């Protein structure tokens, strides 16, 4: 077979499965005719939904001539974007510097390093992601590399407008009534919302945010000064506050009862989806399973299974 007929790794990003939950929704949702679906973004090659914007940001910047292979890229990240960018940089021939708070899981750090990225760890108790974002900007100003800036880069939500949204619409045959997503950079919820609402303005977009005092990896409520500039509040119809303990418990349930081992932000999105489901009937509710649970094993998240 001619080598042109084989896909490259970037061509395996996207087209992830959308699966129906069988046990967690319970008989009440079945009686009301509700269906709850999880989009398994952990099936992407670097293991998360962030593979989509990482590929989009690098490929679009390359196409515009903003960067070229051999250049150094810099990004502040809480984990999944960093892994995805490290993979994409490796396959496109870039050097990658990732700046991240030092309280993130060892699996995430190891994954980034495996792809050849240089890591800079910042004190989580001295500014966290906000400090990491400021440091990235300073490094770019000093000529140390190019910041892609997932928080302000329109190529982030564009990836979801072009891929995630159309996939959800096609996979549900246009029946989706609610889309639920954790909110971090907000790229996923922005891009998917724009696409789904262009197909049907009645689709409800629901954002999962951390409750006061909760720390949930991948789910943020930004201070006003650091609110991602890609975020448009008019594209989110409803917010659900998620308690950290509820998201962690749901991550264990999702693995033990559905066979879907996912991260805590995905579980938080499911908590929000179930909250929405309590108020509706005959609804098709899809949520993003942001990543795989194996990158949280060292945190002890799954050490104590629910119901045992």
UniProtKB/TrEMBL annotation:
Name the chemical reaction catalysed here: O-acetyl-L-serine + hydrogen sulfide = L-cysteine + acetate
Name one matching Pfam family. PALP
Q: Name one GO molecular function term.
A: cysteine synthase activity
| Pathway of action | Amino-acid biosynthesis; L-cysteine biosynthesis; L-cysteine from L-serine: step 2/2
Which residues are annotated with the PTM N6-(pyridoxal phosphate)lysine?
50
Determine if Amino-acid biosynthesis is one of this entry's keywords. Answer: yes
This protein's name: Cysteine synthase
| Organism in which the protein naturally occurs | Jezberella montanilacus
């Amino acid at each position: 077979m001619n080598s042109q007929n084989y896909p490259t790794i970037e061509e395996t990003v996207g087209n992830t499965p959308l699966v129906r939950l069988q046990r967690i929704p319970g008989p009440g949702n079945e009686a009301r005719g509700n269906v709850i679906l999880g989009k398994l973004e952990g099936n992407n090659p670097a293991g998360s939904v962030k593979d989509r914007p990482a590929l989009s940001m690098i490929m679009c910047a390359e196409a515009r001539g903003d960067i070229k292979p051999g250049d150094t890229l810099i990004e502040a990240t809480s984990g999944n974007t960093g892994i995805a960018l490290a993979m994409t940089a490796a396959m496109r021939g870039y050097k990658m510097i990732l700046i991240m708070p030092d309280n993130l899981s060892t699996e995430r750090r190891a994954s980034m390093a495996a792809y050849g990225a240089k890591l800079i760890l910042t004190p989580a108790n001295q500014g966290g992601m906000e400090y990491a974002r400021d440091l990235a900007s300073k490094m770019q100003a000093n000529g140390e590399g190019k910041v892609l800036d997932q928080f302000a880069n329109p190529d982030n939500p564009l990836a979801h407008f072009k891929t995630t949204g159309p996939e959800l619409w096609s996979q549900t045959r246009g029946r989706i009534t609610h889309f639920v997503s954790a909110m971090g950079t907000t790229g996923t919820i922005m891009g998917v919302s724009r696409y789904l609402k262009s197909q049907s303005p009645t689709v409800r977009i629901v954002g999962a945010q951390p409750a006061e005092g909760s720390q949930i990896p991948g789910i943020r409520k930004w201070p006003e000064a650091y609110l991602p500039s890609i975020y448009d509040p008019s594209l989110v119809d409803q917010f659900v506050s998620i308690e950290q303990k509820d998201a962690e418990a749901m991550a264990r349930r999702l693995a033990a009862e559905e066979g879907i081992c996912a991260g805590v932000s995905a579980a938080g999105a499911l908590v929000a989806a179930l909250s929405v489901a309590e108020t509706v009937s005959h609804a098709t509710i899809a949520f993003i399973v942001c990543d795989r649970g194996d990158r949280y094993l060292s945190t002890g998240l799954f050490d104590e299974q629910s119901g045992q």
